[in-house]
Amino acid sequence: MKITGVELRRIAMPLVAPFRTSFGTETSRDVLLVRVVTPDAEGWGECVAMSEPLYSSEYVDGAAEVIRRFLLPALPPNVDAQGVARALEPVKGHRMAKAAVETAVLDAQLRAAGESFGRFLGASRGRVPCGVSVGIMDSVPQLLDAVAGYLDEGYVRIKLKIQPGWDVEPVRAVRERFGDDVLLQVDANAAYSLTDARHLARLDAFGLLLIEQPLANDDLVQHAKLAPQLTTPVCLDESIESAEHAAAAIALGSCSIINVKPGRIGGYLEARRIHDLCRAHGVAVWCGGMLETGLGRAANVALAALPGFTLPGDTSGSRRYYATDITEPFELADGHLDVPSGPGLGVEPIPAVLDEVTTATEWITL
Ligand code: OSB
Ligand code: MG
């Protein structure tokens, strides 16, 4: 496939409510979109890097810089999606930037071929069950109202963001109010250390599906020491940046579940490799999210439909984060989202909406 040029587009998407985690509070999402243009089709990739390097080392200005300065110049004149990672291999890290480029190339390739992401990746279902990630709140009553609203909307699983000082009490309150049948899990975004093991074991009483990333990003060994001290299964998010990390985590016993975020690990092809690896080892995977717009959401929903994704993902409806999405909104039906079936991502940006939220565009001729 010959790429004639690439547009880097920045959009500012206000959130319907502030989203607070152990690493910060977001009120607006600053998203970098990559649009690859070929003679036959165009393709979109959404970069999941956030404004600041607090979730991981990448951040959106840095991603734009590495894409324009190092990644696009490294692409050969003719490239398909499978060749992108190989061409970009000499550049270390920057997986979020690489994922955005690869996804845009894959989208263009699939649109030209008339094949959907779901079909290409190996989706085995037409719709996926949806969970929702619930931020840290100022008070427990406020949290209970938020959870009640999401359960009313049909979400089949609740994930509570936790941090020291906001863990056992909110979990207990949600269990007491909504009962033991609610699928419930927590996400610490690396806010604890191994010396907190006995405190974290207090969560064992609440029958959680999992605890996500309790310890630091680079601490596979310490997670392996923590896991046997908890009955709550340990799930890794930030720690897993590649299939190699996933293999190491499984071998070390650092986790028994993995949150697969294509953006974090370099793209959907690597995500499928992690899915296959985990499936072979009996390790459950689920599809995480990074507050994606409809473009990134479409691809995540397709991935979440693979057979090894046995737990509900953070694949919520568009309005969980955005009053107006840049694509037709994803809307829950019976707690599920449909996997788009059209070519490529199967969704398009709505030009007027896209223009309204655009803060900058840059055209790069290849
Ligand atoms: O740790 O899963 C995370 C959002 C931004 C950065 C990290 C995380 C999250 C979420 C929200 O939990 C997932 C989503 O709904 O998109
Ligand atoms: Mg997480």
TrEMBL record:
Signal peptide annotation: none
CDD domains recorded: NAAAR
Enzyme Commission code(s) on record: 4.2.1.113
Statement: the UniProt record of this protein carries the keyword Cytoplasm: no
Start and end residues of each Mandelate racemase/muconate lactonizing enzyme C-terminal domain: 140-233
Full protein name: o-succinylbenzoate synthase
Source organism per UniProt: Nonomuraea longispora
Pfam families: MR_MLE_C, MR_MLE_N
GO terms, molecular function: metal ion binding; O-succinylbenzoate synthase activity; racemase and epimerase activity
Residue stretches spanning the membrane: none
UniProt-listed GO biological process terms: menaquinone biosynthetic process
Alphabetical list of InterPro entries matching this protein: Enolase-like_C_sf, Enolase-like_N, Enolase_C-like, Mandelate_racemase_C, Mandelate_racemase_N_dom, OSBS/NAAAR
Cofactor list: a divalent metal cation
Highest taxon of source: Bacteria
Keywords assigned by UniProt, alphabetized: Lyase, Magnesium, Metal-binding
